[in-house]
Records
---
Amino acid sequence: MTPSIALAGLALAGKPPPPPDLDAVAAGLLGAALASDEAYRELAALCDGIGHRVTGSAALDRAIDWGLAEMTADGLSTRREPVTVPIWARNEARATLLGSPARDLPILALGRSGATPAGGIDAEVVVVGSFDEYKALPDAAVAGKIVVWDVPFTDYGATVAYRWAGAIEGAKRGAVASLVRSVTPESLSTPHTGVMGVEEGKAPLPAAALTVEDSMTLRRLAAAGPTRVHLEINAREMPDGQSANAIGERLGRELPEEIVVLGCHLDSWDVGQGAQDDGAGCVMVMEAAALLAALPVAPRRTVRVVLFTNEESGGAGGKAYQAAHAGERHVGVLEADTGAGAPLGFRVDVGADDRPDLEGLARLQRWLEPLGAGRLEPGGAGADVGPLVAAGSAGLGLINEMSGYWRIHHTHADTFDKVEPAALRFNTAAVALAAWWLAEGDPIGRLPGAVPGVEPP
Ligand SMILES: [Zn+2]
């Protein structure tokens, strides 16, 4: 090597490379995301190769290993961070409408439901359409009965309150079980599970979701005369177990101590394949990170994928991650957890006390507009990144078109075939662009004065 070439090399090494052109890289990411079916291929592998992944299952452990292997293959450095999780076992649950003719009612026990005594219970139902209607009943109308919460879907947050609190309210007045109308605006006789609230130190009532159709039938029959149901639920709360958050990251080139989290939850309910909730969100963030990992120069900040565990039945993954990383600076945290419908934009979350500076995101909005995803509005970023936002991070929650979502949410029908490959490409592109902005652009600004937040599902 001649001295002049060596000196030229030294000079180059001492000079930082020019910063990447924000818009040019965004255009490249958009093109690459729209040209790739990698996220769709990964989702097929997760759904068909592993299946549903409830907390505590061997399938969830396999999914964590799978996620780590995929992210390693995509050039991210990976690790498994242990999380202690609550474990609940569904076991068998069945309900029969007694009388003439008797018939079986398809049900799904609610997560954390208690069990009926051996052999089950036979009891009359008392059907109510709201908490107000329930409160107006005398105690004698509830004691010894099965409370049926026949509450039509309005929005997820308002309606899910009955799934959450129905069993607690029933127990306070001596009901023997709680049945809730499935939380969905449309139904083809499909029960929808989901977690329910349990009061500290109290044994939970047996509780399950009915189909919308059967809930409405019970209301009609009970209005006409005493109506009895046989209910047998063998669900059980187990000792806590071990799970993990799966992490994959690329260190930032200038500000490696500033972290951008791209999050989803890898656990699902133990029905269907957990395809839209939330396998789709996981492959979106994994593939977006893979595109950032493939850039010749690393983004300024560290990009870190977190496949959270235990979102559905306790949120232990999100809480454990925040506790373990409380000393780090999370400048932006993104979550994808509202299915795989077309992307519409992002909820921007700076916590309860401030409102986000949406004008500061105008450039990101311009990148998103060709995807039809330019909607930016204040709102909750997501359940898993919630603890990080509460601790001061700024969040983005992917907004999806949801007309096809609620009817399959938490059911046997949340399967891979419902996911449209084109919509998944658009979602992956939207997440990649948002991740690029968080990792390279200005941090999300906050303005004083709260906005009434929209809670994410
Ligand atoms: Zn979810």
---
Amino acid sequence: MFGFLKDKIKGAIKNVTDRFDKEAEVVETKLPEEPKKEEKIKETKPKETNKEVKQKETKPKEKPRDLVKEVAKEKPNIFGKISQAITTKKISELQYDELFWELEVELLENNVAFEVIEKIKEDLKPKLVDVPISRSKVEETIEESLRDSISELLSFENIDLIKEIKSNKEKPYVITFLGTNGSGKTTTIAKVANYLKNNNISCILAAADTFRAAAIQQLEEHGKKLELKVIKQDYGADPAAVCFDAISHAKSQHIDCVLIDTSGRLHSNKDLMRELEKIIRIAKPNLKVLVAESITGNDAVEQALQFNESIGLDSVILTKSDIDEKGGTIISFSYMTKKPILFLGIGQNYNDLKVPEKKEILKTLGF
Ligand SMILES: Nc1nc2c(ncn2[C@@H]2O[C@H](COP(=O)(O)OP(=O)(O)OP(=O)(O)O)[C@@H](O)[C@H]2O)c(=O)[nH]1
Ligand SMILES: [Mg+2]
């Protein structure tokens, strides 16, 4: 999933390093002085064990060895030289801006949001600007800094859904899934239902997309396959009423969880947003989850920010990560929305749902 981004970043780091080598100002730096001979020898002399001390006591006295001479003979390069000059290079802030552009383009093209790139740029700056640095260290410094920045960007506190539902005192735990048309809401609900079922949590599905043709049927098919009850009304019915029915049924049957499917909408559609607000007012969900497509990159981030402003999101599920070659969306998402990424959708089967792991993401990015 991040293979493409990984290769692009590696390529960009190499370009930055090459340009640094060509354009940076050469600086002669003196290495710090070597410690005095006697001190060094004292440090390197191994400690004597008790046994050795005893043996020494019984041995006839030998002529003391001149260790300083011996070591100096063996390692003339270390002890022969007192100080040494090495060649390093440094760049100005202006040069840094130009060099960073190489990296910036790759990150932008791979769905990393502009604000996120700015943060990465600021993190890296003090490590490269006006700091004498050798060529071999440039690549390493950029890589290390990027790894630290991305690691920090991915530092979201995730929700342990199973624990949340199991510790919920007032049944049912209600989750509303919302998002734009075709983002994967209905498929994701089926995957989550399957995940809950595998964790011994009972759930029912609420067909609150009463708008799109065949939406109820689609949910019913999943219900049949997963052996789960689907609460529905007719097409054109008030979705909030469907939610009310589903929650009442769950209460009376002591069902742990209700998963609400809603129709696709844009945050800019006022009527549909009002309808969503009504669903939320009636259903009072424990979790409002935006289902967004990983492949849409910064558009998905923008949607999340807008939906959050209108109705307040609790979490996000990024679908179609399996076909997202770029991989930058997840990095941008957590930083920009500050919302936990509950799951990644990684395919069209029921088991294709994954809890995002920071360590694994960093590894697939090559860090
Ligand atoms: N590759 C891949 N495809 C997915 C994933 N999640 C959903 N899809 C596919 O995306 C398409 C749309 O999925 P739906 O679940 O119908 O999306 P929706 O948001 O409910 O759509 P509307 O109800 O029309 O708004 C289907 O073909 C799904 O199989 C995923 O994680 N990976
Ligand atoms: Mg749907």
---
Amino acid sequence: MNLDRMELADCGTPEALVAAILKQVPDMPIPVPIKDVAMALGIVEIKEMELTGFEGGLIAFADKSEGTILVNDRSNPQRRRFTVGHELGHFLNPWHLPKTSEGFRCTTGDMRASKAKPGDRAAQMEVEANRFAAELLFPKPWFDKEMAKLAVVDVEHILALATRYDMSKEATARRYVDKHREACAAVVSQNGKVLRIYRHSSFPFVEPERDSPVPSGSATARMTVSENEVTGWNEVDGGVWLGSQHGRRSPKAFEQVLGQQNGFRLTLITLDDDDPADDEEDVERAWSRPTFHR
Ligand SMILES: [Zn+2]
């Protein structure tokens, strides 16, 4: 793969950097050969090794003329792919500078950061590196086209997309809820505890916070789901997930659950937020397009 780094010189955002890469490789293979891309852009070595206390690292000259990426070899291949993308994001952004002379040492928490407090430059760099990795590993021109075909929300789409892009189910779920035309949210839980929440920009709110119990009224808490099993859609009161913050009237919510190893569950949530006064209009609309829930 041949890439000219000069073409990336004036890119001010992670998205612009990725666009400048894809412009040079219009026939980018899917899954994206992330190591080849990194090696074509000045990374001289990708070391997969035992790392203690962090998931990925970047050692580079201050002028970023060349760099070495470190990847935790205990993590699964899909996670390692994201790590390479994340570190390449630090490498290509000329304003990303590590706190110490040891270089970047990025934890699993850094790799999931999606927002930073104003003024927290270190956290902002992690958010930008994650945006870069997601943009590159789920390239917009391909991913958007595939998402545009999906009228409904379904966990099965996430499984198929994760395989196609060779990415983890969680990274795929995050991108999926972000890009779906319907407002939806994904909740990752383990043994009844909420670990992470991802939501579409117009999904109103998810009340349970990180490390709090999965709400007792939810299908996720009530249902027995075996490993790799995907449930149908279960209707629950929207208040279960939205809490009191949503106002007086809770919409109906629908939950679909994927059972995973070690007590992990991935839950997709959609809402039926229509006002009852619109019911007649709803009947008409129901005839003109497929319904979204089953
Ligand atoms: Zn980082």
